[in-house]
Structure formats: structure tokens, C-alpha cells
Amino acid sequence: MNSTNNRTILLKKMMAVAGLTWFFYIVFHLFSVLTFHSGEASFNDFFMWLNGSVFYPVLLALLGSTILFHVYIAITRQLNNNSSVGERYKKPYPKAIPRTVAWLGAFVMFGFIIIHSFQMLTTKTADLYSQLHLIFSHPMMLAIYGFGILALSTHLHHGLTNVLQTLGFSSNKPHNLALVIVVAIGLGFASIPIGILYA
Ligand code: HEM
To answer: How far is the CA of 29 from the centre of ligand 1 (A)?
Structure first.
């Protein structure tokens, strides 16, 4: 195997590790936001503690750098693949998901993460609980969060199905397990706006 191939494989593995970092954050974030169902004090107190902890700036730096790395490698891999000469050099993509649809989903998810992070990081932490009520009273925001969570779920399903193989741990593609995990995550996040709408 030549050094270009080795480098390509290494970058793909690093991209998978960056994706996994986000996956673990998303699980942590889900449990954090689920405190919403325990009431205003628990929710705001949890985020006051998180924002004041030494761990928080490290978390933000890790999330920022890993998402930029993941997106950069995804785009450069796609561009290299597009410019490969001849069909036989092109990487196949799951037939069920056309490449443009997958990219559109990834773009929607990335847009959601930018909008949501900006919105949350510019809100006073002591008011987060009431701000969420305000945010989810706007139909436009419900649509943004709805599409964001949907796009996240499909992207995560693709990632979780392939990650073991990419990292060389197993040749299995655990479609069903990945499906159960992403449905649980999607429903968990959706329970916040749903809880507010039907309170
Ligand atoms: C209805 C669903 C969601 C709710 C109610 C929610 C709520 C929140 C809240 C309250 C914060 C503020 C944290 C703070 O000030 O410390 C936050 C931050 C953040 N959220 Fe979400 N979130 C949701 C879904 C998501 C999803 C699906 C993602 C990722 C794909 C995400 C990624 C982030 C990021 C990156 C931050 C900034 C870092 C942090 O403070 O943890 N959120 N979210």
C-alpha cells in the first residue's frame, strides 16, 4: 500500500474519531437537556454549574475543533473523489441514499448546529428555561429544530452504522442497533419542544 493510501485511511479514521467525539457529546447533551422535564430550577442550575466549570471552555474548544476537522475532511474527500479520473476510482455510496441528499442533510445539520449554538451561547444561562419556552413559541424555530433533529438522526445513523468498520474493529454494519440509538436520541430531544407545546 502506498503512502497516499495510508494517509487517506488515517484521515478517514481521524474523521471517524471526531464524529464519535460529537456522538458522545450529543448523548451527554441529551441527558443534560432532559433535566428540563424536572423543572426550571434543576434545568437552570445544571447549566449554571456546567457553564461555570473548568471543563466547559475545554468542551467548547473540543467541539469547535472536531466539527471543523470532520467537515474539512468530508469536503476534501468528496472533492478528491469527484476529480478522480475514471469511474473505477470513484468511491461507491449507499445506493439507497443519493449523494446530494446526504450532503443536503449534512448541510441542514451543520446549519442547525451553528444557529442553535449561537442562540444558546448568547442567552443568559439563568434564563435558559424561560428562553426555551420563548424560542419554541415561534413556528419558525419549531421548524428549524424539527429539521435539525431529523437531519442529525439520519447523519448519525449513517455514521454509527459505519464507524466500527472505519476504525477497523469489526466488519459488522449494525444498522438496527444504530437505528434504535438514533430514534431514542431524536425522540429525547424532540420531547423538549413537545413538552412545551403540550404543557
Ligand atoms: C430540542 C433540542 C435541544 C435543546 C432544548 C437544547 C438546549 C441547549 C441548551 C439549553 C444549551 C445551552 C447550554 C449553556 O448555556 O451552557 C445548548 C447548547 C448547545 N447545544 Fe443544544 N439543545 C438541543 C439540541 C441540540 C442538538 C441536536 C445538538 C447537536 C447536534 C445541540 C448542540 C449544542 C451545542 C454544540 C451547544 C453549545 C455547547 C454547550 O453549551 O453544550 N443541541 N443546547
So the answer is: 6
